[in-house]
Design a protein that fits this description.
The N terminus is likely disordered. The protein has 368 residues and is mainly α. 73% of the residues lie in helices and 1% in strands. The protein has a domain of 204 residues. Helix 3 runs parallel beside helix 15, helix 5 crosses helix 14 and helix 15 runs antiparallel to helix 16.
């Protein structure tokens, strides 16, 4: 979308009316406004479409509860990716970190008599240490975050295979632990409540605390953040450690809900998580945000579920196809948002400079 500027109107020109008057002289194109809510529109569209095609199954409360509860772990992994992304760091190890948390939960549950709550605490500490190691590679050795975390993810996968002996691990948890992941409160699955609580905490920190402002400042312009006195390196360490802990929490929640481990679980969650975060970044505030991410993820999840119900058995190809296409579209949307934001800021700076120059000239003029 091209943004055009026009010379400022004189004070004697006709008064502004309509949308321009309400917006202070500039109107937001309808396409931009719709783009900010495209995930909600897409979700509503899927609901209407598949509600017509498969009303008996897609609109049932069972389908909705299952889709929400099945998507919780992936949504948590998406939030793990979101936190460092706000600071300008890509953590591609979030899926592998989730898998590491899950394999540790299973190993301790099978081979020790430790309380599972203590094991969960150990998992969170270990996963935070994984984030710390990634930060060391990025900050100290100046390795790009994409490469560093991709390498870390492969190391983590090797560790998982070593611990599990490349076998499925099961039987580590009793029914009381599994009930935490499969129970409901007032018809709402427990795991959905865990996700909402986590989302609220991350949203509050990112949007309403100095910590969140520092993260976004470091992510939008690291050099300017340094000049402003922010320790960008420390922010990188902190964001990756928090990301690791959230990834570990995803593994803990998976152990509550499913209980078993296999090596394909963690890596398989990475691409849908990335699609949700990048799609969500084009929503609402037009930067990485919690509610945009969650709404984007579940909009896509219900799209996949609708296609599976419509085409019936043998539709194993739908999910990877849909997720791959969604990731490509989401990245394109996020890139467009970044470009629009940069152009808007440039225009604002130019307008401010022009106004300042005009003010200087008027102040310097003297009556004859």
């Amino acid at each position: 979308m091209n943004i055009k500027t026009s010379p400022p109107e004189s004070s004697e020109s006709a008064p502004k009316t309509g949308i321009k008057a309400l917006s202070g002289g500039s109107s937001t194109p309808l396409s931009v406004t719709l783009g900010r809510f495209s995930a909600i529109i897409l979700w509503v569209g899927f609901t209407v479409l598949f509600g017509i095609l498969r009303p008996d199954t897609f609109l049932s409360s069972t389908t909705w509860r299952l889709t929400f509860s099945e998507g919780v772990v992936t949504a948590i992994v998406a939030l793990a990716f979101l936190v460092p992304l706000a600071a300008g760091v890509f953590d591609l190890s979030v899926g592998a970190t989730m898998g590491t948390g899950l394999v540790l939960m299973n190993w301790f549950g099978i081979n020790t008599d430790l309380s599972l709550w203590l094991v969960a605490l150990i998992v969170l500490v270990v996963c935070a240490a994984i984030g710390f190691c990634s930060a060391v590679i990025i900050v100290r050795f100046k390795v790009d975050s994409l490469i560093a975390t991709l390498g870390v993810s492969q190391v983590l996968l090797a560790i998982q295979l070593l611990i599990s002996d490349n076998r499925q691990m099961t039987g580590a948890f009793d029914q009381s632990w599994l009930k935490l992941g499969n129970g409901e409160v007032l018809g709402i699955p427990n795991v959905v409540i865990y996700l909402l609580v986590l989302g609220l905490v991350i949203w509050f920190v990112l949007e309403h605390t100095p910590v969140g402002r520092r993260l976004f400042a470091a992510g939008s312009n690291p050099e300017a953040a340094r000049l402003a006195g922010l320790n960008v390196e420390r922010i990188t360490y902190g964001s990756l450690m928090i990301s690791g802990m959230i990834g570990g929490f995803a593994g803990i929640v998976f152990s509550m809900k499913v209980g078993t481990y296999n090596s394909s679980v963690g890596p398989g969650l990475l691409f849908p998580a990335l699609a949700a975060v990048f799609f969500g970044a084009s929503q609402f505030s037009r930067r990485p945000n919690v509610w945009g991410t969650l709404i984007a993820y579940f909009a896509l999840a219900f799209g996949v579920k609708g296609l599976q119900l419509t085409f019936g058995p043998g539709t194993f190809w739908i999910q990877p196809l849909f997720q791959g296409a969604a990731l490509l579209i989401a990245v394109a949307l996020a890139s467009r948002v970044v470009g629009q934001t940069k152009r808007s800021r440039k225009l604002q700076r130019e307008a401010a400079a022009a106004a300042a120059a005009a003010g200087t000239k008027s102040d310097g003029a003297t009556p004859s």
